[in-house]
Amino acid sequence: MATLRIPRKYQPLYILFQLFLLIQSQLVLCYQYKVGDLNAWNIPSSANRDVYVKWSKNHLFKLGDSLLFLYPPSEDSVIQVTKQNYNSCNLKNPILYMNNGNSLFNITRPGEFYFTSGAEGHCEKLQKLHISIGGENGTTYEDVDSPAFAPSASSPSYPNVFGSIPVQSANSNSSSSSGKLQMSMFAFVGLLFLGSTIL
To answer: pLDDT value at position 27?
Structure first.
């Protein structure tokens, strides 16, 4: 097997390039979370009635992540509901309905998200999930039903399975400037590294 030989004078650049790729890969990682972990999506057992409350509190979700709901499609489903319907276990008028047994919900915007089983009586037995996704700088949003997330009059009435398109916030310039600052710091460290290896 052939090995890559890099001339000695280019080795610091090669190491810097490798470091750059490593940092960039850490910045874009998104995760797919299996809801309930080993318990999957079903009615919680009497010994572990608050499994979904504990599960959501033990995970830190961010934009780009996704939730995977696994369940037998002939016995169950998943619906996204409003906060009011979540609290009252009202299954009518869901925001989103998924019933294929392998349902994936992509997190595309910050806010509060409420899910419950679409099967009658399951919500009352605590088969429901609430997750909170923070915005930039750790800000959170009250809930998905707020006027900020309400569709406009010209919006189509059908649900979007992949979530809505994120709206660029007013402070998006701060995120791009922080990216520039990060790249500047990276370049500075790289120059220091190169200077020390050349001397």
So the answer is: 56
Q: Does the pLDDT at position 187 exceed 80?
A: no
Q: Which residue carries 């406009």 as its tokens?
A: 152
pTM of the model: 0.59
Q: What's the rounded Cα separation, in Å, for the pair 97 and 161?
A: 8
- Convert the pLDDT of each residue in 159-181 to its tens digit: 444 444 444 444 444 444 444 45
State the pairing for strand pair 66-70/32-34: parallel
Matching residue, tokens 């037995």: 125
Amino acid 68: pLDDT: 95
- d(C-alpha 162, C-alpha 135), whole Å: 18
Which residue has tokens 């419950």?
116
Q: Are 67 and 131 in contact (CB under 8 A)?
A: yes
> Do residues 79 and 91 lie in contact, with contact meaning Cβ atoms separated by under 8 Å?
yes
Other Cβ atoms less than 10 A from the Cβ of 108: the count is: 17
The encoded tokens of residue 38 equal: 């080993």
**Structure letter (DSSP) for residue 194:** H
Domains of the chain: 29-142 (2.60.40.420)
